Amino acid sequence: MSRDGDPATDTRTDGGTATGADDVTLDPWGSSTVSDYRKLFEQFGIEEFDHLLPDVPNPHYLMRRGVIFGHRDYGPVARAMREGDDFAALSGFMPTGDPHIGHKLVFDEIIWHQEQGGDAYGLIADLEAHAARGLTWDEIDEHARNYIVSLLALGFDPEAGTLYRQSDNREVQDLAFELGAKANASELGAIYGFDGETDVSHMQSVVTQMADILYPQLDEPKPTVIPVGPDQDPHVRLARDLAARMRFFKVTEAYFSQELDADERALVAQAYDAREAFAEDPETPRCEEAGEWLTEYDAEVEAVADARDSAVEKLDNAGMEPLRPRVRFLNRDATDEAFEALVEAIDGEKRRYENHVDSFDLSAEDAEELAREVEVDNGGYGFVAPSSIYHRFMTGLTGGKMSSSIPASHISLLDDPEEGYDKVKSATTGGRSTAEEQRELGGKADECPVYELYAYLLAGDDDEFAEKVYDECVGGERLCGDCKEQAATLMEEFLEEHQEKRAEVEEYIDELDISFDSDRKRN
């Protein structure tokens, strides 16, 4: 969940190719790149953000320009914004080097969510940096301060938000201990490639990150978004799984007394919808009738044969039991008192079984809300599955991926403004070989690191300016020399302003409730 890489490549929302990227690999500690963002939708279930964009009030320019290209379940966060409900945003930063312009995009997203009324959290992933990257505590302390100073200088409100270090937050560590009981080494090995040589502290740092992600919900459950690059998606998926495992109850749709998996449930739902075709009394279709229909009309059913066979077997076992939609509360890990409280709280027609209770009057949404309310009232967490938004990887100024370890490829937020100017002037472009060819064919803005600077930083909230630069480039009106001169000047001005604000932050940062001097042993 911590950001060691960087977002963004082009401004398209069609899942286009990132310049200099290779194949799809999602490794939170590697040098992950993505050759085709469409593969993330197909292979990992990441949803396209542009489909959700109309539902987001006052969307950030990174959303509008397609820098934020995907999400997992961001709908509840957007709905909370629209309706004025509680929500939170959190991201962490692994202090392995200086903060740079790639990190600024993440800073901006946290600040934007705070400005939209969310509870904002910024954390220093120092335990991860020590365990996964082997940084000393002296190195971590130095870098951690620089990250927080830049975050504050860009507009994070420390009085309205929360800043912390993993190593100083006992609540996070206690939650990590509880979450660790719901995960095992084999699972972490499957997700992250850990093996017998992986040290235990590295594994522990993963569980700590899961606790970070769920930390905003300790006081009360609420939609929470984690802005990250796609390389961090394994953390998000594991956190969503662990949030579900910590729940007292699982709410599902059901049609008869036996429990179905997702594929079986989809088949039985099709059978129920087709009841007019097979039921002697369509008002009360019977399970064995539905089983016969699934067997006889299997060509109409879009599912694998084994799911159909297992669904038919369960329907046959239920015999003449009516097939009837209901909402089911499965007792996942509830105390006896909590289960009794849930049964009592369900209004209307219901049917109780040993390990679940069915409601025939509640909607799925109302059932989920009731289950969470009963859980919290009975000492549970009631976690809402965390959401995420994903950025494109940013192209380095020298081509390829932007990297903290290659100074010329990135611009540090600590760089002298003149140095920032010089780096932009020396950057690779998407221009043609000659000015004449550029005027005739136009430049390749979608492959240009300098254009990315305009789209993701230098144009700020001014969409018209970003579009003007793009149109002039691809139309052949804008030549690379003038374009880089303008970008270099804007970058110099940005760094000057940012460092003035950093100096202002330095005057009060020691008064904040976050320590930059670890008292841990210097090993």
**Tally of strands:** 11
What's the tally of helices?
21
Low-pLDDT parts are 2-32
How many structural domains can be distinguished in the coordinates? 3
Mean pLDDT across the residues is 88
Query: What best-fitting shape do the alpha-carbon axes yield?
Result: globular
Distance between the termini: 25 Å
Largest β sheet strand count, sense and barrel closure = 7 strands, mixed
Q: Output the CATH class name of the largest domain.
A: Alpha Beta
Say which CATH homologous superfamily of the largest domain is assigned: HUPs
Q: Mind telling me which CATH architecture of the largest domain this is? A: 3-Layer(aba) Sandwich
Indicate the CATH topology of the largest domain.
Rossmann fold
Helix content: 40-55%
Class by alpha and beta content: alpha/beta
Enumerate the strands of the largest sheet in spatial order, edge to edge or round the barrel: 1-2-11-6-3-4-5
Binned strand content: 5-15%
Cα Rg = 26 Å
Description of the molecule:
This protein has 523 residues and is of the alpha/beta class. It has 3 domains: 38-247 and 384-391, Rossmann fold, CATH 3.40.50; 250-377, no CATH class; 407-511, Tyrosyl-Transfer RNA Synthetase, CATH 1.10.240. Helices cover 45% and strands 10% of the residues. It is built from 21 helices and 11 strands. α7 crosses α9. The radius of gyration is 26 Å and the shape is globular.
Notable features of this structure?
alpha/beta, globular, 45% helix, four-stranded antiparallel beta sheet, disordered N terminus, Tyrosyl-Transfer RNA Synthetase, Rossmann fold, 523 residues
